[in-house]
Design a protein that fits this description.
heterodimer, A: 513 residues, alpha/beta, Rossmann fold, 6-stranded mixed sheet, 12 strands, flat, B: alpha+beta, Elongation Factor Tu (Ef-tu), domain 3, Arc Repressor Mutant, subunit A, 4 domains, 8-stranded mixed sheet, 6-stranded antiparallel sheet, 22 helices, 38% helix, globular
């Protein structure tokens, strides 16, 4: 079993991809969105290429090419006119665009003839300088070589699997274990692999099979004597029961998925409240530029964090204010969009701007909340009252007392990013909020961990609805509903549609690994 | 449109050589052995494809006989009859000719699972089949018994170590050669009959047993794996001795639905149909079964019988203390017999009489012929290819009960398909297969060859994954055009199918073209209960999908658009209701076809695939599925095993590719070497 990149890169990688997709670099954006739509066929005659190292600025970027046209790509871009370089040997060469003949970069090239390569096919690796412009240019140049296309997600791994280079018989839990960036994710992945969730779905699958068997029996045999009356009534109640259980399971507020993919925490608030300072404080490094000038942050700045063992994707957003600056307007729009999608919003308030009469603070905060969040839900928001170092100590105390007294507001934490005062208490509150959002992976009923599972379960519930809809006037169509339900569930438990499952599993392994 | 005229019985003698000495030829393209449902369809199909065909049967008189129940069709089986008819086979038209009680089973459960069924007049059925065969060009029927198969050296261009070259007849020892031989020996292969404690060789009461030579050839010379199955038939009862007033009357459908796409009505007039009667067993029946077990050889054997059509003995033993249904079915318009369906039994005749008299309407009944059991050899069908040709013997085809199936319809379906392929082989044309995504025949054959049988195989609708597509109403659209390309469908049937197809297409377009707001629909069709909150525009197609709508209603509102299609009213309604789900199924079919297209080589050494469990390796080695799709349907296969196979196939294909390219590269490199005089890279 070959292990992919160390897991720590993956968080960065995912964030980077998202950032890259929202970036305004049209050629890269096109490349990435092309990748999403690529279907992987059974026989891969195409030659695929992708950036295999992390996206974004870095020292060295590795671009991998695999497939029959790899040699052509090597010849055209590195100028090996006749002979190919010795296999598996690094050579320093100029890399040129095959059309414009322009030199794009100078880097290492490696030639891996089949079958001694990661994918088992002819492969080439380009180790080039890691700037986005260079990688974009090389990827663009590769795309102009006949017979090549950008790789689909996980396609290199998929080809390696097909060529027998990988022995992947088990499955997504394993994939998640590799992906587990935090301790809690690792525990959930382990639990899934050991089969709690699998057992739950298997149980449903067995019961659905039973429903189907009874309906089928009623169709094929009821005109003989082998079927007693009331068979369908029994199926009706089974189907209702299953539907109710699945709907209950689906109503878990996405806890498991969140644990798997990270809790979206968004820092929002007015300009100059100290949002970027909070981000930098939380991640212990100057990830965002801070300045006393209002409107410094204009785009969404993201960073991945581990808070109490739970994965958190923290985004800093532009300060919310009306602005005539077009760029800042867009930043504000994005900030509001992020807040809408967030699992948890940290509303940062400059405590020096609070009313000096502490009795009015609650009303002020409540009004402020309404301007930021369309429908303020107290459990999806934390109030961060920043800059307490600028308040007189007595005022801070009064403020704290008042906040303990009032109800109906989200938890509020007076802190100072400057002096780290109150930070520890705030982190405790934040951790418990995140924990609530993720649920405890080790207790209670197993939770849904993948949006793919959710989609199939929703299909399953819908298909059972088809059974109920048709039950009284076309039993063949009603039975088809149960069959569809079983097929949908089978796509999770892995009993049906092996090919589709493979597609999805391999899509979960990201491009170029 | 029943236009076939029956030939008078004496004309057989004129048309058929009863004596081998009179047989004018020593060579045919196709020889079919057996004159039951599989044999007659096979011979007729081969002749339709256009080759000289010889049907050899022990008794010309019993060609087309209904050996067991006097009925055709039913749930799943009715689908097969419709498909055989769509491919221009005999049984559908014969059923329309001989039917005396028509009904659609499952009428309330949706058109995809409707089961067209008919009680038949035995004599009329046999007459129709015989006259059809005798009026089929290129087809000769010969009375005789086959002693053995003639074998010859295999053709090196085809797979398989053996090749069949003809047959040798039993009495004269004369040889007749043929490119293809279709064996449809039914229950006659090493058949034995059981009644009480007596056993006699044979496949059907009153007929001579088939020769031991044939069985020997299959087992010993061809090395085919053979299993044993059993079946049975009930006693026939004199109608006059039955008190039908004590049974429940079951009338037929008031308007008979023909089996055949070529018929708009049946020979039997609606009012001339005969009823069936329903009665039930009593505790006395169970008592007699239990008391007579020691006198019942057949039931003591552990041979596998049909679970779905069990004898009264096995019903009593498996579900004791219950009352079982007994149908009293007419045997024909003029017959003085009744067929008690559900009373198949093998005890001594005097016990049979005591038993049936425990059933109220039969309390004074007289038995005309006692029931009996049959045990027979079948060839494990996993040894067949999708064309029903034996994998290891070129030119030998098997169809019907010899492949482990039960039922007339299953036999007819296989017979037709084997006949088509036998004829194609003799014309040096490639073998053809029907997919399980397009027909029940495809489901039947694929199940047989990829899973084998452990009990007599019977068709059910639940065996078909794409049941909403494979309906009895659209068998013509699915198969007739394809059948015409294969040569087994007559031009007139083909033209009719094309006409139907085009009309349905036009009608569906017309249904989509008419579009009104729901308010207008409510005004025009107040009865359909269109819900008030639907504000958007609705097409006539969408209205037709509505539970209470019929095509006739639409035609009354828009006569100019829809009245030309009135003859298809029912089919159009079905098409409209099923359209959405059928579209989903078609997408699934595409995926399956991809798997079906990944062929697994026949010479894989499965035991060398160490990543598979030993159990899976054994299964694969035993069944040798021809495609990845077939492998997924094997019992005992796991998703992980399928992944490994998938991987294996991909590697095999890739390696072929790589080897080709390496050869190319090597030649390039050599040129390079000559040109530059440098050493080759490692």
């Amino acid at each position: 079993m070959m292990l992919p990149l160390p897991s720590v890169y993956r968080g960065i990688f995912r964030t980077a991809i998202r950032k890259l997709k929202s970036s305004r670099n049209p050629s890269l954006h096109r490349l990435l969105s092309d990748c999403d739509g690529v279907q992987t066929g059974l026989a891969d005659a195409d030659t695929i290429f992708a950036l295999s190292s992390g996206h974004g600025r870095c020292g060295v970027a590795v671009v991998r090419v695999s497939g029959p046209a790899s040699a052509t790509a090597l010849r055209r871009m590195v100028g090996f006119t006749h002979r190919l370089p010795p296999p598996r040997t690094a050579l320093l060469r100029s890399i040129t665009d095959p059309c414009s003949k322009e030199v794009l970069d100078r880097g290492l090239v490696l030639w891996f003839p089949a079958p001694h390569s990661f994918t088992g096919e002819d492969s080439v690796e380009f180790h080039i300088h890691g700037g986005p412009a260079v990688t974009a240019a090389v990827l663009h140049a590769l795309g102009s070589v006949p017979g090549t296309r950008p790789a689909g997600a996980g396609e290199f791994t998929r080809r390696a699997f097909q060529a027998g280079k990988l022995d992947l018989t088990e499955v997504e839990g394993l994939g998640d274990l590799i992906h587990a960036e935090t301790e809690a994710q690792r525990r959930q992945a382990l639990r899934q692999m050991s089969g709690d969730l699998g057992r739950l779905y298997q149980d449903w699958s067995h019961r659905l099979k039973r429903c189907l068997a009874h309906v089928e029996a009623f169709i094929d045999f009821s005109e003989d004597e082998l079927i007693e009356d009331g068979v369908l009534d029994r199926v009706d109640s089974w189907v209702c029961g299953l539907q109710a259980e699945m709907e209950e399971h689906l109503k878990d507020e996405r806890r498991g998925e969140r644990l798997r993919s990270g809790v979206q925490v968004v820092i929002a608030g007015a300009t100059n409240a100290g949002k970027s300072s909070l981000l930098n404080t939380l991640c212990n490094r100057p990830a965002a530029i801070v300045s006393p000038i209002a409107g410094t942050t204009r785009d969404v700045v993201e960073t991945a964090l581990d808070i109490g063992g739970f994965p958190v994707l923290l985004s800093d957003t532009a300060g919310l204010r009306d602005s005539s600056d077009l760029v800042e307007q867009e930043g504000v729009r994005r900030a509001r969009e992020r807040v809408q999608q967030a699992d948890l919003t940290l509303l940062v308030v400059d405590s020096t701007r609070l009313p000096s009469d502490v009795q009015q603070v609650a009303g002020f905060l409540s009004d402020h909340l309404k301007t930021v969040l369309k429908q303020p839900e107290t459990d999806k928001c934390l109030l961060v009252l920043n800059k307490t170092d600028l308040l007189p100590e007595a005022q801070t105390e009064k403020l704290k007392q008042e906040l303990r007294r009032v109800s109906g507001l989200p938890a509020a934490c007076p802190i100072s990013c400057q002096t780290s005062e109150g930070l520890k208490d705030f982190l405790t509150v934040l951790r418990s909020s995140v924990q609530t959002l993720c649920g405890d992976p080790l207790s209670g009923a197993p939770t849904l961990t993948q949006s793919r599972h959710r989609a199939h379960l929703q299909q399953c519930v819908a298909a059972l609805g088809q059974y109920q809809r048709y039950r009284d006037f076309d039993l063949a169509l009603a039975a088809e509903g149960v069959r569809l339900a079983l097929t949908s569930l089978g796509r999770i438990t892995g009993r049906v549609g092996a090919e589709e499952i493979l597609d999805i599993i391999f899509r979960e392994f990201c491009i170029g690994k | 449109m029943l236009t076939k005229k029956l030939l008078p019985a004496q004309s057989f003698q004129l048309l058929v050589s009863r004596n081998v000495g009179h047989l004018s030829r020593q060579r045919y393209d196709v020889i079919v052995v057996g004159g039951g449902h599989a044999g007659t369809e096979a011979a007729a199909a081969a002749a339709r494809v256009g080759v000289d065909t010889l049907l050899v049967t022990q008794k010309i008189h019993t060609v087309g006989a209904l050996s067991c129940n006097p009925s055709l069709g039913g749930i799943g089986k009715g689908h097969l009859v419709r498909e055989v008819d769509a491919l221009d086979g005999l049984c559908g038209r014969a059923g329309d000719w001989a039917g005396i009680h028509f009904s659609i089973l499952n009428r309330r459960k949706g058109p995809a699972v409707w089961g067209p069924r008919a009680q038949l007049d035995r004599q009329l059925y046999r007459d129709f089949i015989q006259s059809e065969l005798l009026s089929t060009p290129r087809l000769t029927v010969l009375e005789g018994s086959v002693e053995e198969l003639l074998l010859t050296d295999p053709n090196p261009d085809e797979p398989g170590p053996h090749r069949v070259s003809g047959i040798r007849l039993a009495n004269s020892g004369q040889s007749i050669s043929a490119a293809s031989v279709v064996l449809t020996t039914g229950t006659f292969l090493s058949g034995s009959l059981f009644m009480g404690q007596t056993t006699s060789p044979g496949g059907r009461i009153g007929d001579a047993p088939s020769s031991a030579g044939l069985s020997h050839t299959l087992r010993e010379r061809l090395g085919l794996k053979v299993g044993r199955l059993r079946t049975g038939t009930p006693p026939r009862i004199l109608k006059d001795s039955v008190d039908l007033s004590l049974a429940e009357l079951h009338p037929p459908d008031s308007c008979p639905t023909p089996f055949s796409f070529m018929n708009t009505q049946t020979r039997c007039k609606p009012e001339e149909q005969l009823p069936c009667y329903l009665t039930r067993t009593t505790p006395g029946v169970e008592k007699i079964v239990r008391e007579s077990l020691h006198l019942n050889c057949h039931i003591q054997q552990d041979t596998k019988g049909p679970r779905y059509c069990p004898s009264i003995e096995s019903k009593v033993l498996r579900f004791s203390g219950r009352s079982h249904q007994v149908w009293l079915e007419p045997e024909g318009l003029t017959s003085d017999l009744l067929y008690p369906q559900g009373l198949s039994m093998t005890m001594p005749p005097e016990v049979q009489l005591r038993l049936i008299r425990e059933i109220p309407p039969l309390h004074r009944a007289e038995i005309h012929t006692p029931g009996y059991g049959v045990q027979y050899d079948f060839v494990c069908p996993t040894q067949l290819s999708p064309s029903l040709q034996v994998k290891n013997t070129q030119g030998l085809f098997l169809a019907g009960q010899i492949n482990g199936t039960t039922g007339y319809e299953e036999a007819a379906a296989q017979g037709l398909w084997a006949g088509v392929n036998a004829a194609r082989r003799s014309l040096s044309m490639p073998q053809v297969a029907l997919s399980r995504t397009e027909s029940y025949i495809g489901v039947l054959i694929d199940d047989l060859i990829s899973r084998g049988v452990t009990e007599p195989y019977r068709m059910f609708t639940s065996r078909a994954e794409f049941r909403t597509l494979l309906r009895p109403d659209n068998a013509d659209l699915r198969l007739t055009l394809k059948g015409f390309e294969l040569g087994c469908v007559s031009p007139s049937r083909y033209q009719e199918a094309v006409r139907v197809k085009n009309s349905l297409r036009d009608a569906m377009a017309a249904l989509r073209a008419v579009s009104l707001s729901s308010t207008h629909w409510r005004e025009r069709l107040p009865d359909i209960g269109l819900s008030e909150n639907k504000m958007s525009k609705l097409t006539a197609m969408e209205i037709l999908q509505h539970t209470d709508t019929t095509f006739e209603m639409l035609a009354s509102v828009f006569p100019e658009s829809f009245s030309p299609y009135m003859e298809f009213a029912q089919r159009l309604r079905i098409e409209a209701v099923y359209k959405y789900l059928c579209d989903i199924s078609r997408r699934d079919i595409k995926r399956i076809q991809k798997e079906e297209n990944m062929s697994l080589p026949q010479d894989v050494d499965y035991f060398s695939l160490s990543s598979l469990s030993m159990e899976v390796r054994e299964i694969l080695d035993r069944y040798r599925p021809s495609t990845l799709g077939a492998a997924t349907r094997l019992e005992g296969m796991t998703p992980a095993a399928i992944q490994v196979l998938f991987q294996y196939v991909s590697i095999a294909e890739k390696q072929k590719e790589i080897m080709q390219r390496q050869q190319q590269n090597q030649s390039e490199d050599k040129e390079d070497l000559c040109a530059r005089n440098v050493s080759l890279p490692q």
